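Minutes, project check-in
Item: structure for the 81-residue chain
Input as provided by the requester:
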Amino acid sequence: MPQTRLDFTSPKAEPLNRVFGEAIVKYIDILGRRGCNRTAIEFNKLLLSFDPQRDPFGVLLRIDYQAIRAKEYSLLESFIR
C-alpha cells in the first residue's frame, strides 16, 4: 500500500500543501454538519495519514467525536488502545 507524506509546517513546504489540508478540514466540518459522519471519519483518516507524527490540523481532536456520532465504537476502541 503506497503511503504519502505531505509537509505542512516547515518553511520549505509547498504552500499548496497547507491549502489542501485546510480544504480537507473544512470539508470534514461540512460533512459533520450534514450528518455524513462515516465519510468524515474517512477524511480524518486520510488527513492523519499525511502527517501522523505532528498532526498539524488536530485530527486527533475530532476523530473520536466523529466516531461516536457515526456509532463506530470499534474504531473508537482501537483508536484509544
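Outcome recorded: The mean pLDDT is 91.
No further action items on this chain.
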